[in-house]
Amino acid sequence: MNRIVFKLIVALAIILSFFEIAAANPPKPPPVGDIAGYVTGLDGETPIQGVAVRAIDPYGFTYYDTTNSDGYYFLYALQLGLYDVETSKAGYITQIQENIEVIMDQVTIVNFQLGFACDYVVGDVNNSGMLNGLDIVYAVNYFKGFSPPPYSCFCDGHIWYVSGDVNGDCLFNGLDVVYIIVFLKGGAPPIPCPACPPGGR
Question: Which domain holds residue 148?
Answer without folding.
Answer: 117-201
